[in-house]
Specification:
Elements lengths: L2 E7 L5 E10 L4 H14 L2 E12 L1 H16 L3 E5 L3 H10 L7
Parallel strand pairs: 2-3, 3-4
Antiparallel strand pairs: 1-2
Length: about 100
């Protein structure tokens, strides 16, 4: 599986979004966590754009939960936006569909 991560910085550099394209699974988990933590270490908030994620398994969900927890512990905002239909189904099935809006 392959994953591309694009960093998008908002006005004033305070809002950083990571646009993920591909799969979030065992092979790409570390890349997602590394990219997300690098934003949380230096920015006020992190937004994950998942519109182009075509696969996410339980390992991917775990990565999102880890990033959400890291943001919470750091007093920073974490959001997941523009979920692809496949990701939305996974979040709906796990009850996490409204967890990170």
């Amino acid at each position: 599986m392959e994953l591309t991560i694009t960093r998008l910085v908002g006005v004033g550099g305070c809002n950083t979004a990571l646009r993920l394209c591909g799969s979030i699974d065992l092979l790409t988990r570390k890349a997602v966590l590394y990219a997300g933590r690098s934003v949380l270490d230096g920015e006020d908030e992190l937004t994950l754009d998942l519109a182009e994620v075509d696969f996410m398994d339980s390992v991917g969900i775990g990565a999102l939960i880890e990033l959400a927890r890291a943001a919470e512990l750091g007093g920073k905002r974490f959001a997941v936006v523009d979920c692809s239909p496949r990701v939305q189904r996974v979040l709906d099935a796990t009850g996490l569909h409204d967890a990170w809006n």
